[in-house]
Amino acid sequence: MPDSLVPKTISTLAEGYGLARLRADALAGLTVAIVALPLSMAIAIASGVTPDRGLYTAIVGGFIVSLLGGSRVQIGGPAGAFIVLVAATGARHGLDGLLLATAMGGIMLIAAGYLRLGQYIKFIPYPVTVGFTAGIAVIIFASQLRDLFGLTLSGAEPGPIVDKLIALGHAAGTVNWAAVLTAALTIGIILGLRRLRPHWPGMLIAVAAASAFVALLQLPAETIGTRFGGIPRGLRLPTLPPLSLDKAAAVFPDAVSFALLGAIESLLSAVVADGMTGRRHRSSMELIAQGVANICSALFGGICVTGTIARTATNVRAGATSPVSGMLHSVFLLLFMLLAAPLASYIPLASLAGVLAIVAWNMIEPPPSWRSCAPLMATPSSCSPPFSSSSFGTSRRGSSSVSRSAPCCSSIAWRKASRSAKRNRCRLCPRRMARNIPSLPTTPIR
Q1: How far lies 131's CA from each of 165, 179, 319, 337, 410, in Å?
Q2: Who's near 127: CB < 8 A, 6+ residues apart?
Q3: Which pLDDT tens digit goes with each residue over 225-264?
Q4: Residue ranges of the domains in the chain?
Q5: Using CA of residue 365, residue 371, residue 377, residue 380, what is the dihedral sign?
Q6: Rounded CA gap, 273 and 438, in Å?
Q7: What was the pLDDT predicted at 393?
Q8: How far apart are CA 114 and CA 70, in angstroms?
């Protein structure tokens, strides 16, 4: 039943669930929680909200994605791909508008799941996803330059990337070398551990080391405590965001963008998990779970939830056997908020900016060897516009409008390129090209 509306949790427990599997899932959940802890706070700050809202998203949304989802190993939470959308929506409509758009996007995802629309995501070509994500990565990195260098702006930081870079250039004389050193230390530890100890939680170790470095030397670097006053110890009580027809109409385009990007990101992550585990996800059930997760996240004050490729891959490599690992990952994050929330006040913002700089680089997905880019460059000329237009359009105009238009337009271009390559008997047709590039998933979404 590849597209059944039955959560994978039920299917997994029906197979038989014993102590050995629980032990494996608990270890995998703890591993993912260690990775998700700094990422959730960093993504929330980059999205223009307080760090605790990133943790609410990972705890509430991540638990529901695993409980109701159509994948055995999918991990839900805040994603870097949403940073631009969330920040822009919050700037235009405020926090209440952001929460309302998140909930409305969740309703759209539930409707898409019941209408079995998940199968149509496969018509969005992979170069569009890569180009769109690369454009977002550029915007994410630009948004972190202020904290990476500890710059002090004379006014509010502009939203458009060109205006932002101009404003940051004018503030170049206010560089805080303590922040630069902290960010460099964070990035160096992450890259060093990735090469020397790839199984260690490099991001958490780097953030902890940078926090101790700043605290012990009493460096003048801004921290979560100095900017946000720390994070609360526990979850908020669920509350409905203010609702009115005028507000709903105003945030409707943003809700559509949340739903489209959430569907693409979560189903792509599920496909990657299928390739790692040899199993098949249920796309319609996954969309329904993502919708419920976004609604519940908004009720608890969180931001957009989606399946995350990096944390899902970490979950698989850590030995997860069922959705229980994802639910336990949320439980471990909740325990951190209950027991160790005061420690988060010491985390330097420059360190979290360094983490997001690494995330932005990873989103571009450079191939293991630059020679493996040759098949992409050698594709028929009609294959190039989907990648280049989505990448440039995202970085130039922002992801909101591009996320609504690029998939439809580029799907047509991609299918035309496929037919053209087939007619010309080109050995580098789009499907074969995807098989020739190691970093591309070769399994279509079904």
Answers
A1: 21, 31, 31, 36, 11
A2: 376, 383, 386, 387, 390, 410, 414, 430
A3: 888 887 888 888 899 888 889 999 999 999 999 999 999 8
A4: 8-364, 371-436
A5: negative
A6: 16
A7: 55
A8: 13
